[in-house]
Amino acid sequence: MIYLELSTSDEKNYIERLYKSFARGRDFELFLNHFLKKIGFQEVVTTKYVGDNGIDLTCSRPGIDLQGIDTMNYYVQAKRYKPTNKVQAKEIRDLKGSTKRDKQGNVLNNNYINVFITTSSFTKGAINEAESNPNMPTILIDGKTLLNMCIDNGVAFSYKPVFDEDMLKEILKKYSQSNSTVTNNSDDYLVERNITANDIRARILIIPQIIRNSIDDNNSSVNVEINGQFQTLNLDKSHRYIGGVTQIYKDCGLINDDNSFVQKKSKWKIKDDKLIVNIE
Which of 28, 36, 121, 263 could form a disulfide linkage to 142, CB 3.0–4.6 angstroms apart? Predict the structure, then answer.
C-alpha cells in the first residue's frame, strides 16, 4: 500500500479536529492510555485525576533481562492545548525538576524518561529545555507528531480507497509487451509461475495452463530448454507437469547438497516448438 503525504492544510485541519475531539484534558489522558498501548508500551496507567498536577500517565517498556532489571519507565505529561497555544519552556522545566509523584502524591520509580505529549506544539525554548540535560531525557510529542503516529498505527483513522490512474498506467506499461495467447518466435516470456516446496519435494515442474494448451495431446515427452540447457523430458498423462527434473533442480539451486529446498520463480515461453524455461 502507498501512503499519500498530507498537505499542510489537511495536517492543520486534522490536528484541530483531534484537539476538539477531547472535551477536557482528562479525555485526552484517557485517549493516550489507548494510544500508548497501541504503539507498544506496557503497564499503561492513567493516574487518578486530582486537579492538574503530577504525572498524567505511567508506562514501561521491557529490556532484554527476563527479570526486568533494565525495564525503562516513562512518565507522561499530557496537555490538551489549542493548536495555537504553544508549550513553554517553564512547563518542560517543571516536568524535569519535580520529584516524580503521581497525582495522589506517591513517589514514582527513578529509572524513568519524561514524555510530554500535547495537541499543540513547543516553543524553541521548550525544545532547548528538553535537550539541555542528556542525563534527564525528555521526549516531546507535538500535535503533528501525534497525528502521524495515530495514522501510522491506525488509531482514530480509517482509510478511503483512492483511485491512482498513474499507478494503473505503470502497470499497463509493464505488461504491455506480454501476449494473451501463445505465439511462436516470441522474445517475451508469456507467463510466470512459482516453483513451490511441494513441487521440489515431488521432483516435478508444473506446466502453466497457457503453455500446456499448446502441447499435442498425444505427446508423452516434450523438448524443453531450461536455463540454456536443452533436454527431452517426460510428461505425465494429463500434461500437468514435467518429470525427471531432480538434477535440473540441483543445477539451478532449488535442491541444496543437504537436500534443503529453495523456492524460485520460473518464466515460460514457446519458441520453434520448444518450451523455453528460465528459473531464477
Answer: 121
